[in-house]
Amino acid sequence: MRDGRLDAKREAATLAEPAREARALAERLGLTPYPVRYWVVDHDEMNELIAYEGFQRRYPHWRWGMNYERQHKSDRHGLGKAFEIVNNDDPAHAFLQESNTTADQKAVITHVEAHADFFANNRWFGLYASRGEDGPNAAARLARNGDKLAAIMARSDVDRDDVERLIDAVSSLSDTIDQHRPVDAARTRPDPTDGTGMAADESLATIRERIDDLDLSESVRREVFDEEWLDAQEQDADVAEPRPDVLAYLRDHGKRYDPEGGKAVDREPWETTVIDAIREEAYYFAGQKLTKVMNEGWATYWESIMMGGEGFAGPDEFLTYADHMARVLGSPGLNPYKLGFELWTHIERLTARRDVIDRLLRVEGITPETFHSRVDLGEITESLAPHPAIAGAGPATLDALADLARANDPRVDADAVDRALSVRTGDRDPAHGPDIERYPWKLLTFEGLAERHYVLSRPEHCGALRAVSRATLQERARYMFDVDRYPTVEAALADVDRTAPWRRLFEVRESHNDVTFIDEFLTDEFVREGNYFTYEYSRAGDEFRVASVDAEDVKRKLLLRFTNFGKPTIVVLDGNYGNRGELLLGHRYNGVALDETQTKAALERVFELWGRPVHLATIRTEYTEEAVRRARRRGREPTGREVGVRFTYDGEESTEHELEKSIADQIAAETVDYDTKPDEWLA
Fold it and tell me: Any idea where the SpoVR-like C-terminal domain is (predicted)?
């Protein structure tokens, strides 16, 4: 009879060295990951972990079983195999599937090390760990939440069904948090809809008192804080600021509907505990949802450098690894691995090309107009190739590397070279020297590895300089000054910083999320070279058609897909709508209509957390049958009319009403402004 635990232990023992060496290589490449603890699990255990969203202990709930059944069927029918699962924690925990081949396991380990680096360094993941703790401590915090909710369910005075129903309601609204702020931020904000239209401590009288306290001169006061300015503040205060964290608002101001009394009553303390626990977990998972493209692309990029570029996959494993990578990048639909990998490579290539162009434009006689005629791009590519000893680092180039080390070349690890030479001459036991046959990267430093993998020296990117346009050259030249000129092309290329592309990747990794990442780096060139396009449903043709190949259209479509996790953005507009204690939510309309069936179901969930009637303001586009028929005859899309709608749920039935124009104007947007920078989002 097969002993699964024994097999897992044997498999884990064989992976100890690859895990250790992958960590050493990752750090040599400049990554700074959380410590990672690896576990080998079988199919059922992996399915359980996926069902529990990457953790071994969660709160009791029926949906974990549903998740398990779905994953189990997918695994059994070959619809999708999970190679690994890793969570954002310090230390991170990575679970590897026992049935993976050795090549797959190595690929997974290098992938995980890059994920752990992203977790440790991206500021959006840091929002969850912003309460003064050393790290996320996620496994312990989620386990504590599980224990709290299990204890509540075990109480004799609490109906388990009531707890599960509350968990369902809160979970269904988990995407209505304010993911741009720390988990506790919304709890400290004043209620913007307290009936006065302004925060209690920011009334106009308070503003006037503060100005008086400043003891300003009469001239300054007239110049800056005149009556016109004060009147403007009063007018602005009449409009409540929408509140993005709907769950926090429901937690702080909501009640529970008592069907026996037919009215809203205060919650029991255990109900608030449940809301807090589920909301906190929503913030943990927000970082992963906000950076799916960046994170998966980052892990895929460094996996390819380690497995392919540095030969972490041995000669007998490389074909298996190549097939593994082809399957990952070849998955259909919007593939975050592929899109992210290509965007990171695009940034790397742009950074390197900009550095080279800036230096070449400083060469005497080279201008944007003469660049392509005066610069021999073939010679440039050859000049940017890594030093032969760096490119072929290993036993065969040991003497050449030793010469570089004696010259204090920063690209060479002099100590590692010295130990390798001692082993070769018999002065040192091979067990105490670097294994340069299997891990030649140990002979190089970060600078050496950056040159070895310099993007413009890779065959697939050798045409990057040839593709640069005169407009781009003129734009770069506009910021050039008559300093640091080079007498020759050779002198200019000698100053090229081959670490600059990777250092730029590290900078981008720290502050961006998927929306800002795509907004800043998805360029015309990227769309053109990647053959990206948008498609949409044609009402006239009753089919999907290619809509545009324009970069701005592609970007806009992707941004809509990733803003607010790709879900509608809902905010609190009024907590005392109609002066009846009813809740008015607003849909930040961006041209994409709500699914009305889901909207009505969501309002029923909100009612459970508010206890009184709830409303949702949105906009939809209505088409007349005649307009659709006419458009089909002409082969065009019909023109619709945007109409404001207010959906209402009062605890018994859902109704639909015309929306007040002032509210429709408040939620409508002709365009969506994504021109924001990461620091602004994190302010």
Answer: 568-619
